[in-house]
Design brief:
With 294 residues, the protein is mainly beta. The protein is built from four helices and 16 strands. The structure holds 2-acetamido-2-deoxy-beta-D-glucopyranose (NAG). It is found in: Secreted, Cell wall; Secreted, Extracellular space, Apoplast.
């Protein structure tokens, strides 16, 4: 017979079960921009709202702009809520990425390629390890990213790098050290975001040019909380490595539900994947083996 104590126990076990279920990264906490970030260039092209809880980047024919995190991080979960430039955004690129600052750098990129009014944005992702990139994947989004805020995030631990759009994994880069592929683990990264003109390549391969009569192009941001192990730029490891939530077992791989979502994104929205580009890579890079399993 179930006493109320047993019920409570059962309930808490069930709750624990849901808490320990794989990834969906923790809910963002709202903090002002200045707590964790600072402008990188063209300071006057960044506008602040609600005490800095929301900001806008402006791009006009004179300049784009960008910002970066004050701290450097080794592993964590890094997210940003972004509303992309509405209307005619052809030729523009909005980026959110992590990058180390050294020569043989590591980098994890989200790049949103603008388009003519009513035409879809492309989301391009890339991963650089030890200075080597050329790992582009491109997808269409399943919503209009200019209408509402959507969350774009990266989970980075010793086991995997996962790109999420609204908690749906769109790409996984597994640690393939066993296959001889470098994986970012000892070079702290800063977070960056920027909005700039790239009409030499961004939209339909550079055919569509930026229409400056539509300027300024405006990207809006919120969610400036950072979940990462802060380390000095020169650090080679993080003091709490292995102990933070993003290091734990349930974040070391996707769960069955997340694999299904990733496959859904793959099947429905992929435009380009370097892993299947035989013209570019007659011999495919080693990590592609892991990508193919998806
Ligand atoms: C822009 O729209 C065209 C036409 O729908 C499409 O071919 C292209 O992939 C879209 N995105 C970019 C960034 O070029």
């Amino acid at each position: 017979m179930a006493s109320s104590q047993q019920c409570t126990l059962l309930l808490s076990i069930m709750l624990m079960g849901s808490v320990t279920m794989a990834a969906p990264p923790k809910r963002p906490v709202s903090v002002p921009f200045g707590r964790n970030y600072m402008p990188t260039w063209a300071f006057d092209h960044i506008k602040y709202f609600n005490g800095g809880n929301e900001i806008q980047l402006h791009l006009d024919k004179y300049t784009g702009t960008g910002f970066q995190s004050k701290g450097s991080y080794l592993f964590g979960h890094f997210h940003m809520q972004i509303k992309l430039p509405p209307g005619d955004s052809a030729g523009t690129v909005t980026a959110f990425y992590l990058s180390s600052t050294n020569a043989e750098h590591d980098e994890i990129d989200f790049e949103f390629l603008g388009n003519r009014t009513g035409q879809p944005f492309i989301l391009q992702t890339n991963v650089f390890t030890g200075g080597k990139g050329d790992r582009e994947q491109r997808i269409f989004l399943w919503f209009d990213p200019t209408k509402e805020y959507h969350s774009y995030s990266v989970l980075w631990n010793l086991y995997q790098i996962v790109f999420f759009v609204d908690d749906i994994p769109i790409r996984v880069f597994k640690n393939s050290k066993d296959l001889g592929v470098k994986f970012p683990f000892n070079q702290p990264m800063k977070l960056y975001s920027s909005l700039w003109n790239a009409d030499d390549w961004a939209t339909r391969g550079g055919l569509e040019k930026t229409d400056w009569s539509k300027a300024p192009f405006v990207a809006t941001y919120r969610g400036f909380h950072i979940d990462g192990c802060e380390a000095s730029v020169q650090a080679r490891f993080c003091a709490t490595q292995g102990k933070r939530w993003w290091d734990q077992k349930e974040f070391q791989d996707l769960d069955a539900y997340q694999w299904r979502r990733l496959r859904w994104v793959r099947q429905r929205f992929t435009i380009y994947n370097y892993c299947t580009d035989r013209t570019r890579y007659p011999t495919l890079p080693a990590e592609v083996q892991r990508d193919r399993d998806i």
